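Hi R.,

Here's the chain you asked about this morning:
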Amino acid sequence: MLFDVQHFIDMLPDIWKAFGETLLMIGISLSISLIVGLPLGIILFVTDKGLFWENRFVKGILGFIVNMIRSIPFIILLVALFPLTKLLVGDTIGPIAASVSLSVAGIPFFARLVETSLREIDKGVIEAAIAVGATPWMIVKDVLLPEAKSSVVQGITLTIISLVAYSAMAGIVGGGGIGDLAIRFGYYRYDNTIMIATVVILIIIVQLIQQTGDLIAKTIDKR
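And the predicted structure, written out as C-alpha cells:
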C-alpha cells in the first residue's frame, strides 16, 4: 500500500515531535538571521558608491564574505561548521545544533534581500532627506526602512521558506525535524507513508508561509 492511514496515525507522536523540532530550528535561525542580516543588508547598501556612507573597503569585504557563504551548498556548510557548532552548543546533533548552520546560511541570504529591497527606493527620496539635513541614522530609520518595509517582509518570507528547505537537509546529518524523520523512516526503512506525509507537511508549511507573507506585504504597502 502506498499510503497506510493506520500507520500514519500510529506515527503521529513522532511526526508532531519532528514538526516541533523544525519550528524550533526555524525560529532560532530566523531570529538570528533577522537580527544580524538586517543591519548587514543596510550596511551593504549605504556603503555603496554614491551613498552617504560610501566605503569601498567595507563594501568589498562584506560583499566577499556574503557571496562566499552563499556560494557554499548548505549540506557542505553544515558539515564544515561542525567544529563551530560543537564549540557553541556542545553537540553536532539535534535541532539546536542545526540552528547554528541554519543561521550562518540565513544571515547572508537575508542581507542580500534587504540590500536589493533598499536599491528599489528612489534615490531622489534619499537625496531630499540629505538636503534637509537628516543624519545617516535618521535616513535609515525614517526613509530607508519605511520605504522598503513591504519588500523586506517579502524577503523575510523567502528567508523562512529557504530555512524550511535547509532544515529538511539538516536531517541527513541528524539535525532533527521533518527532514530527519523522512530520512530515518521514509528513506532508510522504505516507508512510503512517512515519506509522503513529510513531503505534504513541508508543502503545507511553505504554502502557509508564502500566503501569510504576501498578505502582510500587501497590507503594509501604502505605495
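Residues 5-220 form a domain with the MetI-like fold fold (CATH 1.10.3720.10).

Let me know if you need anything else.
M.
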